[in-house]
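Render this sequence as a predicted structure.
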Amino acid sequence: MAEKIDSLASEPDNDATSLTPRTRVRRPVARRSQAPAKVARTAPAARPAAPKGPNRVVKPLRSLVILSMVGGLVATVALPAFAAGGLQEESVTIQQKAVADAQTLVVASDATGAELSRDSYSATTSEEIEKKKAEEAAAAAAAERARLAASVASSQAQTQSRVSVDLNMVAPGSGAVRWPLAGYTLGEGFGTRGGAHMGVDMLAAGGTPIFAAAAGVVKVSQESYGGYGVAVTIDHVINGQRVGTLYGHMTYGSRQVVAGQTVQAGQIIGLVGSTGRSTANHLHFETYLNGSNIDPYAWLLANAG
């Protein structure tokens, strides 16, 4: 066996005549002889080389031109629409938006201009303004005086119809200061009740006439004046001093004066009663000197006559 193997190994290769399995063993010599055949079979299937020349430049340029044309077409269609919308929004002004509410004036062809006169406009200088203010103040004062006079007349007519008062009675004394009652009984004085009583109580029968203590102007005349009930107050100027007098607890409907009315010393202003915070018929009389309460009975003793 060893000899047979050596003999076969030394024999030259012959693919055409050898029928043993060893003839199909791949040998390096056989690969070199078959390589040209394989190249020959695949050569016809290879792609031809790209032609050289102007065609390589024309195709990219053509694509670029087409893209440019498409972009230009899009811009031509889209941009005008966008610009039209933006311009329409920006071009509308406030005046244009308000044109629906605007007012118009139509002047006839035969209209004529009116000439201005001095009386057609108000005063403009400071002198004219002050003069106009003074005239208005005088007119207002006259109207107020007329109103007060009418009110006094109306009040007097009403009070006289409610309570019968003998207006011919006169106050005792003849001086600038008079006693408010012709007869009375002295009651609580000034400063009593722990200093809370700011007047003097002059007890008298209900319906006794009450007189103005001095000439002056009525400041208050009311049917209900706090705890004083029916009351009247009068402002006076005596010997250059401001004096005020108050008359409280009068009978309802007996007042003979109204606010703003000028009265004389000794003039009847009402009747004694017991209205307000009162338990008996009497006159509660108070006096003020320059705005401060003073003892009214001492003031009467010093000045009434």
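Summary. The domain at 126-305 is CATH 2.70.70.10 (Glucose Permease (Domain IIA)). Residues 1-21, 33-40 have pLDDT under 50 and may be disordered.
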